[in-house]
Amino acid sequence: MIKRLFLFLLVALICLTATVVIKTVSTGSRQLQVTPAAPLAIDENAAAQRLATALRFKTISRQGQTDLPEPSAGEFKKLHQHIDQAFPLIHAKLTRETVGAASLLYTWQGSDPQALPVMLMAHQDVVPVAPDTEQNWQQPPFDGVIRDGFIWGRGSWDDKGNLFAVLEAVEKLLASGFQPRQTIYLAFGHDEEVNGIQGAKAIASLLQSRAVKLDYVLDEGMLITEGILKGLDQPAALIGVAEKGYASFTLNATATPGHSSMPPEKTAIGMLGAALARLEEQQFPAQIRGVALDMFETIAPEMHGLNRVLLSNLWLFRPVVQQQLAKSQSVNATLRTTTALTMVHGGDKDNVLPGTADATVNFRTLPGDTQTTVAQHIRTVIANDTIKVSAMPGNSEPSPVSPTTSAAYQNLHKTIREVFPNTIVAPGLMLGATDSRHFSVLSHHIFKFSPVRAKSEDLARFHGTNERISVQNYVEMIRFYHQLLLNSSK
Asked: Could you tell me the pTM of the whole model?
């Protein structure tokens, strides 16, 4: 009996191992085979100088901003003047409209009125430099310095680099006499860093009023990462096909105020603290599904070693893989609706029991979750009906997921591989919010991708200190947008 059981287990193990091996080696690559794009003559120094000049304008947007008070308005005007002077063909041949306080909408009329237009997006505004950190910059954040092969300054990465790379590409196409088949819109918001309500949303509403439908929208987004994904030797270009939703909720606990010398059994702060602790301990489950599943299945055949085996056989190793991936802060955020305790307030004197205490909890929701499911999760986890739970204004649901089977995605995939040879292309989930979320009424194909190369040590530069873009990468960015528009017109 024992011998038969042993033989049965041995056969089962052999069959299981064979299945894993066959699945691993038989999972084919999803990468398009393309010929690298032809070289494009670009005056690197002149292009770098034009971007560097743009970085000197302090087009800063601040939280709570609903207009553009001086001097900010003056900085945007200077940027617009610089664009007009730096790109004379765009100024002469494209129609430009100012939307809201300072957002720009350019229209390049196509030759085929039946073809759906396309839109390239970027934003003009930048985040402030954190107080008392200016001395930590290797080059002053608003001096627009070119040194050591890099263009330094706030906005070089986010997002004036993309904006000026688009303008450089369009100017070059105009100079060559190129005529796009479909109309091309260039949308440059002025308040993306503060939700894009006055800029991108207003542009979307304007185009909707004109009954415009778009073939695809390409906005800033995910990057070309180098050496970040373990088990993958090649660079990985992740195309954001969706972005997470934003859901902040306030929790308010009330109790009888009084003197701290005679505390009751339950206080407002105690009840609120217990509720917050439970929310942090009992988070939404991590799951490899949706966009994350598509991403890992696309990357798996390109990996080597154990990672390829595990990701190629999620039917077997999913629990182990999920547990390991959830240990990474950035990857964890792609697997679950995250819970972040961000603000708390209660009491104003050390010997007085407050009558109320409140906190704010921010959730970034995966596609498939909603504000309703988040509210239900909060109430179930805290298990205290006396605590009032309220959704904050400005919340938004996750964006729709753009299909990777579409011609628009395949065109983007092809272009990346043509300009960045040997780069692995895969869909991804954008964790932050972009202006493009306002355009879901105009297109089913909205992508978030920046042709910016980044290593792990570069990620801290995003909204941080020593933001910069290499001149070489900036030239690649120009080539990318140039090739994308050529490919889109075929």
From this structure: 0.94
